[in-house]
Target: ATP-dependent RNA helicase DbpA
Amino acid sequence: MTDFASLALRRELIDSAAARGFERMTPVQAQTLPAILAGADVLGQAETGSGKTAAFGFGLLNKLTVDPDRTQALVLCPTRELADQVGQALRQFAAPIANVKLVILCGGAPMRAQAQSLNQAPHIVVGTPGRILAHLRRGHLQVDALQTLVLDEADRMLDMGFIDDIQAIVGHLPAARQTLLFSATWPESIRDISARFQRDPKQITATRGDGPAQRITQIFHRVTEAEKLAVLERVLADSQRRQRGFAQALLFCNRRDDVDRVCRHLNNRGVSALALHGDREQRERDEVLLRFANQSCAVLVATDVAARGLDIPSLPLVVSVDLARDIETHTHRIGRTGRAGESGRAVSLCTPGERDRAERIAAAAGLRLNWAAWPDNDGAARAQPPMATLVIQGGRRDKLRPGDILGALTGEGGLDGHDVGKIEITTVRAYVAVARSKAKAVRDRLRQSGIKKRRFRVSILGD
Model:
């Protein structure tokens, strides 16, 4: 049975699955949820984009008790970007359950503000190991009632050197808990931490016949360094042609200065592009990802900081402007496309000195390396996104809800419902995707009319 209603789920979660358009369980959900709901520890291997967040999310929410206010679930993620996405997904899954409080704790945000958010214990905490451990050691986070620990993308956390922090965190947790460990790969180190932290786990490998290798078309172009930008424009123009309209793309460079250089070039050529790398402040990185996710940006140019944790369900194209340094990095890059059953294209630009590395990457994917001819077009890839992002200087602290903002936009704001995209609300501000052609007019109206009879500062992100 692959219907969520076939499981012993509380009615709110069955309704949530239906509201999210989850008609049937994915393989990872069908294989892991029965064991999770039965209270077993699970060691799960599943590809990125397979639906594992819903698997452990529905599992931990199913046994959640909103009264009293006690922290009952902890989800550890390797990066801030993934933690934000997991937190947002869990909030959406929990929407039909009244009064569920979730807090995201990651580096890059003030400790004091996070500590204040923990004064009333959240039911669910999602975060990165270092910041979670810091709050535990300071006594800000109380976990004596914890029921569920989730280690998401555990292999990546080990690669990033988090094992000592994870060990210390587990030392604060009740022994009588359920531990769910998900990993894309099962190296010996994963089995070691499973043996340390889990009790007789159910080992589940979720596979599907149309996995990433079948859904992603890989293309390799031979170029010189001087030819890269011209070929890149041809590749982007070809993607727009194939999609018959607006199509987003994620580009990877190995160096931060190359990210900025490629981003500037594309913007000068009429392609709406944003840059993402470690030199950016955390808030700026969050806003770049948000604009890409809500279609306020056509092209995201990034270092491998974005190779994990970026979840755009319908991303048709990934381009390695610089060939990945190793096979694992290449695998994670191309895994950003071909997600959730969609097909995708992964293009790699290879200089003559990278031929041997390209051969190894292709061999690891079971491919015979055939060099493709460059796309036959004029490289005119001018692409402007359909949406723009409004920033409202008010958030959850001001009791703003998505319904309040939507009502203001479709009322005094003068928009039709289809002109409004994603609405994301943080503690102090809200981000709203609206039709680009109407963004300035809507901004001006909201400044005058306000929301819930209150006036907020409103701007267009990036203007």
